[in-house]
Amino acid sequence: MIPMTSPPFAAGADRSTTRGWPVLLRLALRQDRVVAPVSIAVLVLMSVASAAATPGLYADEAARVHAASAINASPAIVALYGPVLDVTSVGELSMSKMTVLYAVFVAVLFIVLVRRHTRVEEESGRTELVGGTAVGRDAPLLATAAEVVLLAGVLGLLTAVGNALAGLEVVGSLAFGGVWAGTALVAAGIGAVAAQVSASARTCAAVAAGTVGLVFVLRAVGDTGPAWLSWTSPLGWNTQVRAYGDQRWWLLGCYPVLAVALLALAVALRARRDLGAGLVPARPGPATGSPRLADALALALRVHGTTLVLWTLGSAALGVLFGMIAPGIGDLLDSEVAQSVIDELGGALVAAILSIDAVALTYFAVTVVSHAGRDEQDGRAEVVLATATSRGRWFTASTVVALAGTAWLLVVTGIGLWVGYVAADGPGVGNLVVAALAWAPATWAVGALAVLSLAVRPRWTVLVWAWPGAFLVLALLGELLGLPSWLTGLSPYAHVPSVPAESWDWGSAAGLTAVAGAVLALAWSRFRVRDIG
Amino acid sequence: MIEVRNLVKTFGIFRALDGLDLTVQQGEVHGFLGPNGAGKSTTIRVLLGLLRADSGRVRLLGGDAWTDASALHRRLAYVPGDVSLWPNLSGGETVDLLIRMRGADPRASRRDELIERFALDPTKRGRAYSKGNRQKVALVAAFATDPELLILDEPTSGLDPLMEQVFNDCVGEHTARGATVLLSSHILSEVDRLADRVTIIREGRVVETGRISELRHLSRSRIVASLAGPAPGLAGTPGVHDLVVDGPQLSCTVDPEGLPVVLAALTAAGVTALTSTPPTLEELFLDAYRDRAGVRR
Question: How many DSSP H helices and E strands does chain A contain?
Fold first, then answer.
């Protein structure tokens, strides 16, 4: 606990509903003292590494312009990164991945922070504890908003300073820092609204993630088709600010306006509901259990069923979208020059999409594994293990749902890509499901590491969440900074052949699967004998 | 049914259980008492094979608590003190799941009757239940079948007095058919009412164990008497403590060996009214701790 020495409220203070928020702000900062600085440092580091390394990749301005034009010529890359509006701008090319795609990670971080200080606190009953003290009803939300503004400012400022020190122009770097800070504010607003909708913290995460996905897709479609759609998406603004070109400063003002509007909406929704409840009253459940709901595996499927359905729909939609955008790839792959340019940008197009998708889908495994960790901490695992359910069955249930679920989502993505590709009359459509499944062994290896973390210590949930992100950062930094291959090779994702640009490699698939198996065996040998709880 | 010998369990440098012994005989309700942090829940978790003992012998239902865990769990039911439910499963689903996971069939169990007796709404989702109602879900699942052994860890926390009565009835029904119950509790009156024998632990060690009636012999009775004549000179009599004389009223506490002398003296003084209260479990409890802490009067 933080030392609450100073009296938080004046005696006989008003009946303000925001009373006491400074105390809660300090509490929130205390709770986030590790997660927030580390995440912000990683984000800034990625931006700075991009800023420092990208100009060196190209011999002269002509090569840069050529690369930027290649990006713009490829709908799939534009869909992922957004276009390069000024092909002569060093800054825009350097920030091509950062402007939109990595801004999504900024959004995710701020949604996570908002969710954990609002709905998670409420679901756990801690908000009730706070509400029983002399703290106003809206104080938790206001304190969270204050924390978000503070952290978004720090993130924006550090990114601006870092990019400028790395050699990009100062004014543009300030605008770019503003773009990331703005993204953070809007994401926090989305998180605050999502937290009001349902009584469940998981539904809050799903609503917020779905909204960010929608915002991303609107921009992707707009950037590759009807341009006005990009203007409806805050992530589209990120490109349109033209941070390293002819800056549209007024557009930077739109982020805080939207964020304040979302916060006001959240406050209004908050006033319409009871503490602990959602906007929609919870439907009553069945009075008896299905006979199939009788073992640990059925329980894991029941608990994660809704999540799996949502992920399946999301994977299918994104697959179809990118499949439809991808044709043109074929033409591009035929051109040797374009091929080499694209390789520099991170591999062939479908492979590039899949490499991002695979990391994202690994997070399905991560949610399942971290949920098992929370089951253990909260005592639900204890109740199950006090029945005839053995440790082996409990352990296997979560592992199977996590790893098989990820493989299933990869198949769905592959089918979606194929459907979109065929619908858009793409040439030479091949084995996109196989291409997607090529990533399964790598996701299993990372998922197995998540399982191992919890098998060693149930409280290592943060570590579980860190694995896929850490490997993504390692891959990006390795590419930008030319890190030695033994270091980048630590990431399982680095060993996946870029199917369909490269051919399927049984050796790497078998090797990664063997690594996953070995890590799981190690995890089991520890979990089998350790204390529960 | 339960046999624990010289059980040691450490967490890092903290010695949670320090040579604990516990014997529970078939068909008895065994009260398991101790202050917070004494090691009651740790002992129960070792019994359930959730924690691994550092040393000592832990047997229940004729098997080894660690190696035979899942086979033994078919024959017992467990209710934790702080029940956490799956947020999106209804209470009814949770009850049926737990019954099925013990290898029994909920449709052939007393679940419906118990849901009614405990006034539980089985259609609510796990996250919507209050603490008491979460406790009821676990109790219904435990009482619905006929396990040989019930392990109850502070099972009535959060229940209202009416529901405590239903709980007491349920324990009675299960012991009537021959089940064994290990009842860990803070509520001494509950243990007093239900238990045949008790074990009191403190800092991971047993300080007192035996039948409640036997334990009472070890402690004093409180006597209040109204006298017709002058009060007898009881001060200094062996086994008499806390003597207060207030006109015709006399009160004191008496060790068992001092009772004959005191009663004879009171009779001689012309006693007109006499109450003698046996020690409550609270007093046993406090006595046991005072012994340890060395502050006994």
Answer: 27, 0
CB contact under 8 A, A380 and B124: no
Residue B114 is given by DSSP the state H
Nearest to B124 among A284, A288, A529 (CB): A284
Q: A257, A250 in Cβ contact below 8 A?
A: no
Those of residues 58-87 in B touching chain A at CB distance below 8 A are 69-71, 73-74, 76, 78, 80, 82-87
Minimum CA–CA partner of B130 in chain A: A125
Question: Which of B67, B78, B88, B99 to mutate to test binding with chain A, by most A CBs within 10 Å of its CB?
Answer: B88
Show the tokens assigned to A360. Answer: 């994202």
Residue A476 has pLDDT above 50, yes or no: yes
The residue type at B160: D
- Name the residue with tokens 């940008």: A345
pLDDT (tens digit, 9 = 90+) per residue, A396-437?
Answer: 999 999 999 999 999 999 999 888 888 876 665 567 888 899
Q: Which residues contact A13 (CB under 8 A, 6 or more apart)?
A: A19
Dump pLDDT digits (tens) for A12-39.
445 678 888 888 899 999 989 988 999 9
Is the confidence at residue A332, as pLDDT, over 50? no
Q: Could you tell me which of A224, A233, A242, A115 has the C-alpha nearest to residue A183? A: A233
What are the residues facing B76 on neighbouring strands?
B149
* Residue A340 scores a pLDDT above 60: no
Q: Cβ(B46)–Cβ(B9) under 8 Å? A: yes
Query: DSSP string spanning A293-334?
Result: --SHHHHHHHHHHHHHHHHHHHHHHHHHHHHHH-TTHHHHHH
Provide the shortest C-alpha distance from residue A142 to chain B (in Å).
Answer: 25
**pLDDT by residue (tens digit) across A261-309?**
999 999 999 888 887 777 777 788 898 989 999 999 999 999 999 899 9
pTM, to two decimals: 0.84
Strands of B76-79's sheet, edge to edge?
Answer: B76-79, B149-153, B180-185, B29-33, B197-202, B205-211
